[in-house]
Amino acid sequence: MPYLQDLTLRLAMGASQIDREVRDRHANWLLSQQRDDGGFAGREGDSDPYYTAFGLRALWILDALDQSIGDRAAAFLRSRLTAKESIIDMISLIFGAAICELSVGSVVIDDDDLVWRQNIANLLGTLRTDDGGFAKTPEGRAGSTYQTFLSLLCHELIEIEPAEPNRLIDFIGSQAHPDGGYLEIRAAKRAGVNPTAAAIGTLKTLGQLNRVDHTDTIDFLGEMQSDEGGLSANTRIPFADLLSTCTGLITLTDLDAAGEVDVRAAERYAMSMQSPDGGFVGFALDQTADVEYSFYGVATLALCKLATS
């Protein structure tokens, strides 16, 4: 089963255990964020594939993605197939398309459109770097751990294997930091929760999760839990955020080590990030809910339920 589908189904199982009132409040808020064109947007600007993919994922795990919502979102994504998108928006379009098809059967990318799929594979190929990873742009000279993970997921969804997959494994190994975490780029001075999650996700997608001992990685993630209950992005950041909390918990769950953090404290932290009218903010000083952080919030609560059930 593709990584994205497996993760989403697991999150849906956990989300089903969230209190009904909490689920409904956030589902209704997310539904209100769908624009007239069928897409979702960030805190400002027009709809785009990036936020649309997050909106769809959040609604799906809340069991609130019905045929009408999915069809409208699919129509929006189809309208962007021939647009000149950024790399991240193109990858998000593919993620969103997969969700529309899996959840309500609404097809965005025709299975017979092999040319479009190959064009995407060729585009991703322009991001490959000498170190074996994928850069964020074709001009990049060093692989990004996060971009490598996203690119691999994209290859999995379009069903075209990336060139030299063994070099991806070598790249991830080269990003390992002595403290157990992983670097985002080789020039980084310290490991972070999110690149660590991307590294472990890459190994899992490649079926190589048992290739190395993850004891130090588990310890690293455990040390990132702050007094707030959530996880901080790295050792220099003095506060927790929902993104790091979510990705850290996903990683610990994949490593069968969710119990290495105080899950109840993480759940309380996520609940404290709720906006009164629905949706989630990203961190304690944030004041505006958005679609992306609402996915992280719902996903964090779902992961906590899975860990304590």
Overview of the molecule:
Helix content is 55%, strand content 0%. The chain starts with a helix and ends with a helix. The protein has a domain at 114-217. The longest helix has 18 residues, at 87-104. It is an all-alpha fold and 309 residues long.
Helical residues, percent: 40-55%
**Sheet with most strands:** none
Number of helices: 13
How many beta strands in the DSSP annotation?
A: 0
* Distance linking N and C termini: 24 Å
Mean pLDDT: 96
Low-confidence stretches: none
The 3D shape can be described as globular
Structural class: mainly alpha
Question: Hey, roughly how much beta strand do the residues contain?
Answer: under 5%
CA radius of gyration: 18 Å
Outline the secondary-structure elements.
Layout: H1 3-15, H2 20-32, H3 49-61, H4 67-79, H5 87-104, H6 114-125, H7 145-158, H8 165-174, H9 193-205, H10 215-223, H11 242-254, H12 263-272, H13 291-308
